[in-house]
Design goal:
Rossmann fold; four-stranded antiparallel β-sheet; elongated; glyceraldehyde-3-phosphate dehydrogenase (NAD+) (phosphorylating) activity; 2 domains; 26% strand; binds nicotinamide-adenine-dinucleotide; Dihydrodipicolinate Reductase, domain 2
């Protein structure tokens, strides 16, 4: 689940988000699982900050550093020293060692990714973090702490509201199985137009090789949990697709895609 709030800086025009528009000013405290703070008008690279330098925070940082159009300017985590941030960023037992460049501690308030300085804050209260001083235009909230329970529950019920065209047509669930990474999604759908199991496989394969290349994959090899996609057709109108996905790397990439999308609009 991705809960999205857009925090509107008083200095810019209100923005309508996918799920919620919050009044401005003043910007409310960070509440959601994934939040974005929108700053000044974007020119050139999109400057981002990351709140919480855990699994997701570090992977979003990796995605940012691999992207030409995104610039990581600041990180906040009150529970990790810059030395430990460096160590954990460099050595990731799931996603492998970072070999795209040096990461060093410059001082207690700065990390160096190659030659690029990144400001480090250590504040517990999101309202006190001076993201603007570091030049951050968007902040990825990846602490898992600032989640408003009621709002999150509302989002869980919100598939029909967000995608009304899908109301009553599909249901599904995802669960993280005890592997180091990956989750499985179990999607059950009643189809308007009948489709055989082979038709569905062909459609997924076509998407994997077409418009969703790099995001969706398809294999018919005999695979286990760290590999992907299985399914059954109960009949040609009622099907179940079980697909594995990399919850960490996939989520982190989609977060950055979302920032790109918002920066463009
Ligand atoms: N790990 C996954 O597979 C995954 C996938 C998708 C979404 N998510 C979501 O991403 C969020 C983060 O998950 P994670 O797995 O990276 O967690 P994590 O525990 O690895 O990281 C959380 C980080 O936040 C820091 N933190 C805690 N309180 C803080 C505060 N007040 N201010 C700043 N930093 C603080 C912690 O020190 C830690 O480094 C959660 O909301 C989770 O649901 C996780």
């Amino acid at each position: 689940m991705v809960c999205l709030h857009v925090y509107i800086n008083p200095s810019i025009h209100p923005v309508i988000s996918t799920l919620t528009t919050l009044p401005s000013p003043p910007p409310p405290p960070l509440l959601s699982q994934f939040s974005i703070f929108l700053g000044s008008v974007i020119m050139g690279k999109v400057k981002i900050g990351i709140n919480g330098f855990g699994r997701i925070g570090r992977l979003v940082a990796r995605v940012a550093l691999l992207s030409d159009d995104i610039e990581l300017v600041a990180v906040n985590d009150p529970f990790i020293t810059t030395e430990y941030m460096t160590y954990m960023f460099k050595y990731d037992s799931v996603h492998g060692q970072w070999k795209k460049g040096e990461i060093k501690v410059k001082d207690s308030k700065t990390l160096l990714f190659g030659d690029k300085p990144v400001t480090v804050f250590g504040m517990k209260n999101p309202e006190e973090i001076p993201w603007g001083e570091a030049g951050a235009e968007y902040v990825v909230e990846s602490t898992g702490v600032f989640t408003d329970k009621d709002k999150a529950a509302a989002h869980l019920k919100a598939v029909g509201k967000v995608l009304p065209a899908l109301n009553g047509k599909l249901t599904g669930m995802a669960f993280r199985v005890p592997t180091v990474d990956v989750s499985v999604v179990d999607l059950t759908a009643r189809l308007e137009k009948p489709a055989s199991y082979d038709d569905i496989k062909a459609a997924i394969k076509a998407e994997a090789e077409g418009s969703m290349k790099g995001i969706l994959g398809f294999t018919e090899d005999d695979v286990v949990s760290t590999d992907f996609v299985a399914g059954i057709a109960l009949n040609n109108n009622f099907v179940k697709v079980v697909s594995w996905y990399d919850n960490e790397w996939g989520y982190s990439n989609r977060v950055v895609d979302l920032i790109r999308h918002m920066a463009k609009s």
